[in-house]
Amino acid sequence: MENDSYFTLERPGRYELKVKGSRFIGHAMSATLEAVAERLIDSLRKQYHDATHHCFAYRIGKGDHSLIRLHDGGEPSGTAGRPILEAIDHRKLTDVVCVVVRYFGGVKLGTGGLIRAYGETAAGALDSGETIEKYFETMFRLIFPYELAGIVMGLVKKHGATIDKADFSMETQLDVRIRKSKASLLRDALLQGTSGKIRIEELPLE
């Protein structure tokens, strides 16, 4: 079966870490659009306006179409944004933004210390949120004679598809969504079960 699922955050997470006087506060949240991620980052920047550093990373989208952005927030290059992104990727998450702010405590942590602190804070924020598995879906419009409604509805239910819209007029029409890896099975079952007396159109998903 093709890989048609992905993991993201259903509920946000927060985590706090203190290292040698410095205070690190991490927030992890779901974001399906770059504009949403940037708004969340800006909101936390205002909330922690007195923090010494504001660092973040996010991954939006799936596979080759992922959008990745990271920011060290004034820390040495590669010591903040990169470990935050690695915490996201280690958990195989997407559509996620993670922000870590630091209040400097007077003691320099060094490159290794910063990488560990930002990575641990990001990991803690992500783990304190609630992860959910979601699926890529296919949308079909099914058009068929009303007398076949019982057969079609039964097959739709059997294959775990969800009905988004129904129109029981002279020619019955259903808009259904189904997990992508099961779409061809449903299509074949509908064509066989109705002896080809059904029109199946694939619709774009919004």
Structural features:
single chain, 206 residues, alpha+beta, Alpha-Beta Plaits, 2 domains, five-stranded antiparallel sheet, four-stranded antiparallel sheet, 5 helices, elongated
Structural topology:
Blueprint: E1 5-11, E2 13-19, E3 22-30, H1 34-47, E4 53-60, E5 67-71, H2 81-90, E6 96-103, H3 110-128, E7 130-135, E8 137-145, H4 149-158, E9 162-167, E10 171-179, H5 183-193, E11 199-203
Antiparallel strand pairs: 1-7, 2-3, 3-6, 4-5, 4-6, 8-10, 8-11, 9-10
Helix pairs in contact: 2-3, 4-5
Give a concise summary.
The chain has helices spanning 34-47, 81-90, 110-128, 149-158, 183-193; strands at residues 5-11, 13-19, 22-30, 53-60, 67-71, 96-103, 130-135, 137-145, 162-167, 171-179, 199-203. With 206 residues, it is an alpha+beta fold. Helix 2 crosses helix 3 and helix 4 (149-158) packs antiparallel against helix 5 (183-193).
